[in-house]
Automatic annotation (TrEMBL):
The chain crosses the membrane at residues 20-40, 52-77, 89-111, 162-179, 200-220, 232-254. Keywords: Cell membrane, Membrane, Symport, Transmembrane, Transmembrane helix, Transport. This is Dicarboxylate/amino acid:cation symporter. It is a multi-pass membrane protein. InterPro entries: Na-dicarboxylate_symporter (IPR001991), Na-dicarboxylate_symporter_CS (IPR018107), Na:dicarbo_symporter_sf (IPR036458). The keyword tRNA processing does not apply. Belongs to the dicarboxylate/amino acid:cation symporter (DAACS) (TC 2.A.23) family. It is found in: Cell inner membrane. The keyword S-adenosyl-L-methionine does not apply.
Length: 448
């Protein structure tokens, strides 16, 4: 499933600034913050704009992921290679995700963002987080496994669950591959359907500034900038830790893979700003896949790594899980043992797999992690301390997750020997211009 790729554009030949998507999104975010601060009640009424944009994107994710994965597997024609790519991706995900969890623990111990709060656990309002706690109780290993299996083949599309879509797409791709020549008509049909869905996404993404405005206005109007002041230390620690993780850890990985993390961030700036405005990395999943292909990653690797990474490679969520757990432990005066630290990391590794970039999912997985610590040293009710700022934390989680998945896609492509060095050099030579071109133009189908 290929799309025409734009050539590098000279900065002087770009379209007027007010027509550039990332500038429109930036302006929309600023206006949303301003409205939320000046007129909170009016800003809260703008929530539906952000919800509508996210809903429009999410309605297209299932068919796009299905078509991309099925076409990618069928195009490979070698099931051993499919398994090899998947295994490499999972190994990478687990190594980097574990590193993110450990970094959260280390930073939490060094900075001690919760020290001095002196909170009495008995006086915490458990009702405020009761909904999250009840969801977390059902979040067991067996529940995770069973949730992957849809009620029917088409129920996965209706529900839009990424893991369910992955399952049926992989099964369909494997079967079509096994059909050989008889499966080629199905491949062409799926490719054509994919082109249609990508064109629809191209139209919807133009509404990103409106969605970002509505979501940001509601966030500031509902929660207020003032709430950041009380827990500014935790918010700042989380953002700085995530930034260092991206620049240092992912930066070193990127450097060994032949590209600059700074230039990569410039290349996906449009997607980063949309995620900042909507607090959900799912809103840019289709566009991210297009950009990874333009960067030089093969169709088959992009189709397998990006969707899988949205459930299995959540670096930002992992940092948040351990850092927030330590913050709450320090706030209530809990002394954690080495065994409890190990449990936190192990449980967070499992529970984070379900937080696929959706706003609020990280809070549910945090509740599941707290409830699994031996001895229950940190009551789930302690989450009430950070309930007011979770919305501000979710942006950072989603942004870090997005960057991590983009880097993973390039790494696995290079690992598999399917990274086009010419395309990579071309994009990295002028990431701002090429990234803007791809974001602003509609995909044009070309002959496979």
């Amino acid at each position: 499933m290929q799309h025409a790729t734009p050539s590098a554009a000279a900065p002087g030949s770009s379209q007027p600034w007010y027509k550039v998507l990332y500038i429109q999104v930036l302006i929309a975010i600023a206006l949303g913050v301003l409205l939320g601060y000046v007129a909170p009640d009016t800003a809260k009424a703008m929530k539906w704009l952000g919800d509508a944009f996210i809903a429009l994107i999410k309605m297209m994710i299932a068919p796009i992921i299905f078509c991309t994965i099925v076409h990618g597997i069928a195009s490979i024609g070698d099931l051993k290679k499919v398994g090899r790519v998947g295994l490499k991706a999972l190994i990478y995900f687990e190594v980097v995700s574990s590193l993110a969890l450990v970094i959260g623990v280390v930073v939490g111990e060094i900075v001690q963002p919760g020290a001095g709060f002196g909170v009495d656990p008995a006086k915490l309002d458990a009702k405020a987080v009761a909904g999250y706690a009840s969801k977390a109780q059902a979040d067991s290993t067996i529940a995770h496994i069973m949730a992957i299996i849809p009620k029917s083949y088409f129920d996965a599309f209706a529900g839009g669950d990424l893991l369910q879509i992955l399952l049926i797409a992989v099964l369909t791709g494997v079967v079509i591959t096994g059909l050989g020549e008889r499966g080629k008509p199905a491949i062409h049909a799926i490719e054509a359907a994919g082109e249609i869905f990508f064109r629809i996404i191209g139209m919807i993404v133009k509404l990103a500034p409106i969605g970002a405005f509505g979501a940001m206005a509601y966030t500031i109007g509902e929660y207020g900038i003032g709430k950041l002041g009380n827990l500014a230390g935790l918010v700042a620690t989380f953002y700085l830790t995530s930034l260092l993780f991206v620049l240092v850890v992912l930066g070193l990985i990127a450097r060994f893979s032949g590209f600059s993390i700074i230039k990569f961030l410039a290349y996906i700036k449009d997607e980063l700003l949309i995620v900042l405005g909507t607090s959900s990395s799912e809103t840019v999943l289709p566009h991210m896949m297009q950009k990874m292909k333009r960067l030089g990653a093969s169709d088959s690797v992009v189709g397998l790594v990006i969707p899988t990474g949205y459930s299995f490679n959540l670096d930002g969520t992992n940092i948040y899980m351990t850092l927030a757990t330590l913050f709450l432990a320090q706030a209530v005066g809990a002394d954690l043992s080495f065994g409890q630290y190990a449990t936190i990391i192990a449980v967070a590794m499992l529970t984070s797999k379900g937080a696929s970039g959706v706003t609020g999912a990280g809070f549910v997985t945090l509740a599941a992690t707290l409830g699994a610590i031996p001895g229950n040293p940190v009551p789930v009710a302690a989450m009430a301390l950070i309930l007011g700022i979770d919305k501000f934390m979710s942006e950072c989680r989603a942004l870090t997750n997005l960057v991590g998945n983009g880097v993973a896609c390039v790494v696995v492509s290079r690992w598999e020997g399917e990274l086009d060095p010419v395309k990579l050099r071309e994009v990295m030579a002028n990431p701002l211009a090429i990234g803007t071109e791809i974001a602003d133009e509609k995909p044009v189908p070309v002959a496979p």
